[in-house]
Every structure is written in structure tokens, then in C-alpha cells.
Amino acid sequence: MNSWINKSIFYHIYPLGLCGAPLNNDLNLKPVPRLKTLEDWIPHLKFLGINAIYIGPLFESTSHGYDTIDYFKIDRRLGTNETFKDFVEKLHENDIKVIVDGVFNHVGRDFENFKNLVSEKQNSKYVSWFSGINFNGKSPYNDDFSYDSWNGCFNLVKLNTYNPDVKKYIFDIIKFWVTEFDIDGIRLDAADCLDLNFLKELSYYARSIKNDLLLLGEVIHGDYNRWANKDSIDTVTNYECYKGLYSSHNELNYFEIAYSLNRQFGDGGIYKNIPLYNFVDNHDVSRIMSTLKDKDNIYPLYTLLFTMPGVPSIYYGSEFGILGVKQKDTDAPLRPKLNLDDFVNSKESQKLCNFISKLSHIRLSSTALQIGSYKQLFISNKQFAFLRKCENESIITAVNCSKDIQTISFSIDTNSGSLLNLLNDEEIKVENQKITLTLHGNEAIILKQSTI
Question: Which of 115, 153, 208, 306 could form a cystine bridge with 359, CB 3.0-4.6 A?
Fold first, then answer.
């Protein structure tokens, strides 16, 4: 299993959007090295404390990147294989690991083997490469056969991963990505649609190529243990807590996120041994600043993200508080082109960015936040506190989602005279193993004790 994920802070980049690529790919055009513009973001990533990026989709596709044409070529709208190889080298020089999108559940209709099936029909040698092929029906594109798609999107043709030739093809892709680009991991798109036995075979093969290659699965619903376990992938997307994080603040009800954290990571927690991939927004959901009813709750929310068990991820631009609402027919508002200079000179944008940077560096220096146990200390509708603890360090997080000043008290297992608030360097006194905290509106507190 992976050895470095617990120490990671991820930055999620949707490159076709951030780099300002055209929505549709013209395969007659020469490659344009738009990826090179991302090199200017590396100092910003370092400031944020980022040590891993998830970037994708990257490979030649028809439009949004998930309708793959060629897994062995970087999308010409982003550059060439050499463009990406150089980018990965620069990231590695800055101690930033790189995971890419592995879209192995489906391909685009312009994928060569599918085009062969369209033209040759029953005579194609690729009939068994795709799922649900039926020559007694027609597809919405008027093909002389029907086929399985992803989520009813027939421009995304489902692969038949039971086919040994398809498996070998996907394994060859993984080997190529590791040897050609020296990637550190793969985010498996639509992992909850992939056969579990195939995932186990893929995991075994991937680790035979690079033993600490991170395998992250996109899972929306279900028991995360089905996918993330010692025989399969390392971790999955924590959509349960994604929902709990924003909903608790919008409904002024911390019981929701507290319930999930107890269920997942408390005593007897069902995911205690999985470093779940935590996030507050991504390329498929509305930006967190568009989701929050009280924008000031962005501070306690990000504090929870960085101090709860699991691994935090920031979606590009959200550290500046940008807006973006998911639309019925397009995700374009979630995936904009951004100019870094527009934000680094903005005082308002820098306020949140600086706060996230501080959270990031607190987490990077804390073993308790990386691998410590989880225990709830206080819960009410609008205030919440919990303990992260390892052998030589304890961290207490307390948050207030209301606009009012509130005082909370709870017991802690220490006789220490005081604890240090890592967010403002104030000392908080402990008396008779009890602590009393005054929380201002929308405030977060992170307390540290080095010896317990």
C-alpha cells in the first residue's frame, strides 16, 4: 500500500479549464503547449504547502477530456508528451508528487477501436472490447448496434474490462505513464463503475511497476471498504464528508459532520485505516463559496478539512474564494481559465489564501493531524470540537459556525497549564483537566500540546 499519502496536501487541477483550452479538440491542429503556463503556478503551490497535485484529464480526447481518443498522447490542446514530462520534472524538483486521471471505465466515440467497430460492425475484431454490444438494436447515434455507456452519456462508451485484451491494454497504459512521465499515482475515474476483481488485478499490476504508486478511486456512494483495502486501491473520494462539511455550515448543524466523522474515524470507525481523500469542491460540483450561505463560514470549514482524519485537497482557484455554480447542461463555470496575477495582487483573495496556507503548514508539521486518532470532545448545533492524538502530540480543533460569540467547555485528559492556539499564538489555560474556549463568530481554533 502507499506510504506517502498521509503526509500529502493535494491541489486539484482541471488542466483544459485552467489553461484555457478550446472546448472541442481539432485533431488537425498542431499541439499547443498550454501546460507550460502551469509552471508559473509552482511558487504559489509551494506557498500553499502543496506537496502533491491531482491533474487531469490529460490525454487526447474529443472535448472535456473524459471522452478519450488516445491514452498514449497528451491532449494537443495542452501540448505534447514532452511538455508534460518537463512539467512533472519541474514539480518533482519542487518535491511535489503528481497523480493523473485514469479514465478506464469508458472511452470516447473517436477512440480508434470503437471507430473500427462502427465501420466493420460484426466483422470488427474489437466487438468484445466494449460492454453490452447488441446488433439487434441501434444507438442514439444511429449505429447498427447498441452499447453500454457511462451514466446514459452515449458519447462515453463503456469498456469491457472482463476482456483479457482490454485488461492488457489498460495495464500497458499504466506502464507507459509510469515509465514515460514518472507519475506518482492514478486517480481512477468512475471507480465505482469498475469491476472489483479488475480493480484488484489493476492494483497488483500497478504496484509491480512502482510499489508506492498511489491509487485513488472516484466513489460517490457505498461502503468505501469495498474499493479501498489491502488487496485493492489505497483510497477513495470522501463524498460523505464533502456533503457533511458544507451542509453542517449551511444548516447550522454540526451534528451532521460530527456523525460522519465518528462513523468513519471514531472508536470502531469503519474507515479508520483508510486515508480518505477529503475535499470541499471539485470539477464536478459547485464551488464552495457559491455553496455556502454564510461566506464567513469558509474559515471554520477549511479548518475542519485540514484537521479531520484523511487527506485534504484544494480545487484550483478555491483558495481565492472564486465562485462557480454547476449548470444543468455544462460544467464550464466550475472549470475556468485563471490568471494567477489576477489574484496575487488582490487583498481580498489573499486573505483566504493566507489562511489556507497557514492551515496547510500546521498540518505538515503535525503527526497527530496526519495519522492521529480521532475523538469528539464537544458538540452542539453551532459549535464543535474534537481531538487528534498520537504518541507525542495532541491537537484540538474547535469551530463556531454562528455569527455570535460563544463559550464552550469540555474535559481533556491533561494537567498541562496551557495549550497553544496555532492560528494566533495565544495560550489557553487548562484548569482541573477542563478547558473553556471563547469562540468569536465564524471562528476556528487549533490547540496544540506536545506531550501527553
Answer: 306
When computed from its CA atoms, the radius of gyration of the chain, rounded to whole angstroms, is 23
Q: What is the pLDDT of residue 451?
A: 52
pLDDT of residue 1: 59
The identity of residue 310, as a single letter, is: G
pLDDT digits (tens, 9 = 90+) for 1-37: 588 999 999 999 999 999 999 999 999 999 999 999 9
| Those residues with Cβ within 8 angstroms of residue 275's Cβ, 6 or more apart along the chain or in another chain | 5, 6, 234, 235, 310, 311
8 A C-beta contact, residue 97 and residue 8: yes
Buried b (16+ CB within 10 A) or exposed e, 351-378: ebbebbbbbbbbbbebbbbbebbbbbbb
What nine digits make up the cell of 158?
463503456
Q: Angle at the Cα of 26 (from 20 to 287), degrees rounded to 5?
A: 30
Residues near 341 by Cβ (< 8 Å), separated by ≥ 6? none
What is the secondary structure of 207-254 as a DSSP string? HHH-TT-EEEE---SS-GGGTBSTTSBSEEB-HHHHHHHHHHHHTT-T
What φ, ψ does residue 401 adopt, rounded to 5°?
Answer: -100, 5
Measure the CA–CA gap between 68 and 108, rounded to whole angstroms. 5
- Residues facing residue 394 across a β-bridge: 389, 449
pLDDT of residue 3: 85
H/E run at residue 179: helix 164-181
Calpha distance 35→54 (Å, rounded) = 14
| Contact between residue 201 and residue 207 where contact means Cβ atoms under 8 Å apart | no
- Total number of residues shown for the chain: 452
Q: What is the pLDDT of residues 338-354, one digit of tens each?
A: 999 999 878 878 999 99
Q: In 3D, which of 72, 92, 67 has the Cα closest to residue 16?
A: 67
Euclidean distance between CA atoms 228 and 439, whole angstroms: 37
Q: Would you give the end-to-end CA distance of the chain in angstroms?
A: 30
Q: Hey, which residues does 387 pair with through a beta bridge?
A: 375, 396
